[in-house]
Amino acid sequence: MPAVTVNGGKVVYEILGDSGDLIVLTPGGRYGKEIPGLRPLAEGLVAGGYRALLWDRPNCGASDVQFYGQTESHMRAETLHGLLTELGTGPVILAGGSGGARDSMLTTMLYPELVTDLVLWNIVGGVYGTFNLGAYYVLPSLQTVRALGTEGLLRMKEWRELIAENPDNEQRLRALDADEFVKLSLRWLNAYVPKPGQTIPGVDDEMFERIQVPTLIIRGGAKDMDHPKRTSLEVHCLIEGSRLIDPPWPEDAWERAMEDRAQGRAQHYNMFDTWVLAAPEILKFLGDR
């Protein structure tokens, strides 16, 4: 799989399709480009006449682990800027769901010259959603390093999986300075504390004025506590001229996926399996611009 080096770390990527404008697809959480459900969406967009770039962000998939920046999303935005600059893509379309939506918004805010259009869905917000992110992605590693030093990270399932995909990550984790890691983790954790004037974690609302490109927002489900409908509506208000549509998947798709996962049942929905249903709406939006 091709890779480039950005800020001292390897970033793995793949481009599908031979012609057409380039759409950068970014999933949520710390999931890599092979998370089930992402590739079918990419293939649907390629079938509509576009190219699609899939990439493993730092701390995801086969890319190198990295720890820097105001927040993890700021780090990812800087990394994507470096990746696209290295590839010489010119301006691209950014499309992302959940954490990938936040990464895409922040990239557009910080590097507006890189982006022609923006597509967002499953936007995280609200007290429950933001606290949940901090508790899941920051606190476990922070607590481990405070108790065991950076060697303790090697015992954690999350980082062992990344070492299995990219053996270089073992030494990169061993080389971390414990005090600096704790300092950075506290900064990243602070971004997930809900604050007035921050509709999405770690980003001041005034930053939305920088998004001047055509934007499509697929709103969150009515009872989705991780990606609240309210947050989608607020982002729609903050991005002038944006288009808001109802989700093309069942209203309770996320809750059903979480319930199946928690119960260990055969899943009706993987977390991202329904995303392919957005392909027609995205193609229509891009065709109308």
Automatic annotation (TrEMBL):
The record's annotation in Gene3D superfamilies points to: alpha/beta hydrolase
> What Pfam family does this protein match (any one)?
Abhydrolase_6
What the entry lists under InterPro entries is as follows: AB_hydrolase_1, AB_hydrolase_fold
User: What keywords were assigned to this record?
Assistant: Hydrolase
What's the domain of life for this entry?
Answer: Bacteria
Report the GO molecular function annotations: hydrolase activity
For the AB hydrolase-1 domain, which residue ranges apply?
Answer: 23-245
Q: Does the keyword field hold Plastid?
A: no
What is this protein's name?
Alpha/beta hydrolase
- Native organism is Nocardia speluncae
